[in-house]
Amino acid sequence: MNDSLTSVKLSNGLQMPSVGLGTWLSLKDEVKTAVRAALDSGYRHIDTAYSYKNEDAIGEELQEYLKNGKVKREDLFIVTKLGLIHMEPKQVRRSIEMSLKKLQLDYVDLYLIHLPVTLEYDGDDENLFPLTEDGKWKTAEKSDLLQTWKALEELVDLGLTKSIGVSNFNISQVERICKIAKHKPVINQVECNIYWPQNELFEACKKLGVTITSYASFGSPGRPGEYKEAEEPKPMEDPIIQRIAKKHGKTTAQVLLRNLLQREMIVIPKSVSPERILTNIQVCMRHKNKFQNDLTNKPAFI
């Protein structure tokens, strides 16, 4: 990561902006407002997924800014993810092409396997999470992560994505991919915050040349009930974080993000508030001061 914490050099040599806009659970109208606010605030990294159902809304905003000359395509870093129903190798190219059509782009900068889970594809591309009779995800009878990865590698060769990576993978799964990879994963996007620091995974991925992107850096207060753990801790309410924020005139969100950035991670805080979107990216401005020192000399759990 460079001194200003603004970008990270990936193992394939590309520079990835260290702060991006997360868009999970952002409805189409909300995400349009968020993308406009993000681009106006200096963001160039936008994170989405086939399964988020908002790629088309994001694409509309990107095209408006590109056509008006407000941004250049080469300055953007767009990330999307493979649908869980499209994990079968023969579906992979079709899936990214559907995403690119919605995003109105010729390529994405990073394409991720969203989860190491294959759901049964029934021919309906809108049935993103097919369920069994008892309400559980209906997984495919057969799946092979390594074959899916090889299908992603073909997307790089075809110029449909510049980089490929994974999301929600454990150490063993990342190691398996790296052993057979022609194009190695550059990113593993996982939940990571002060209460779930992912230290072991971080160190293992670092040795493999895989950078961590943190989602749910503030915890996930908006997480739907079916994804929520009982009594989830709330990093934004942590008294140590609040004390550091007050001491330096920062928001608690800025302290939580800065902690991860100084660990050489990428962050994708989700917000639809223009004000919070702006303050989130201000954590990577060029300044070395007591604020940074307080985070460096942080309690062990941070």
- Spatial order of the strands forming the largest sheet: 3-4-5-6-7-8-9-10
SS class: alpha/beta
- Please give the radius of gyration in angstroms: 19 Å
3D shape: globular
Helix content percent band: 25-40%
In N-to-C order, the SSE pattern is: EEEHEHEHEHEHEHEHHEHH
Separate helix tally = 10
Q: Unreliable runs, pLDDT <50, ≥5 residues?
A: 286-291, 297-302
- What fraction of residues sit in β-strands? 5-15%
Mean pLDDT: 92
The biggest sheet amounts to: 8 strands, parallel
Distance N terminus to C terminus?
19 Å
**What is the strand tally?**
10
Describe it:
The chain is α/β, with parallel strands linked by helices and 302 residues long. It has ten helices and ten strands. The chain is globular and about 55 Å long.
